[in-house]
Design brief:
The chain contains 2 helices and 7 strands, in the order E-E-E-E-E-E-H-H-E. It is mainly β.
Length: about 120
């Protein structure tokens, strides 16, 4: 979408945070990713895993099997030799609700972009 910048209108990609299961951390906005092992590896490739977005359990559980399969592949990875796969960790992530996010106040900036 076009946003006003210092030198006029600039085409920008705008990604809604909550609607795309992104989360706000202390230093930025984050995308939770998960690596899935490739079961049928191709002989001419070193790739061992594919990377997909990880969703909160309550969102993931509501998806049908077809929707889970349709989650886009973001990239791939190689598990290099000498490493063992670690036990999965269950980390608690605290996601603030919209009401607790501080909204800027004061005069409206000259443009919509921070650069």
């Amino acid at each position: 979408m076009p946003l006003k910048g210092k030198d006029g209108m600039i085409e920008c990609l705008v990604i809604p945070i909550a609607e795309n299961s992104l989360f706000v951390g202390e230093k930025g906005i984050y995308l939770d990713l998960q690596a899935w092992e490739i079961k049928e590896k191709k002989a001419d490739r070193k790739t061992t895993h594919i990377i997909k977005q990880s969703y909160p359990k309550e969102v993931f559980d509501q998806l049908s099997d077809a929707q889970k399969q349709a989650i886009p592949i973001i990239g791939d990875a190689i598990l290099w030799g000498g490493f063992t796969e670690p036990e999965p960790n269950n980390f608690q992530v605290e996601v603030p609700d919209k009401a607790s996010i501080i909204q800027p106040t004061g005069p409206e900036p000259e443009d919509d972009l921070p650069f």
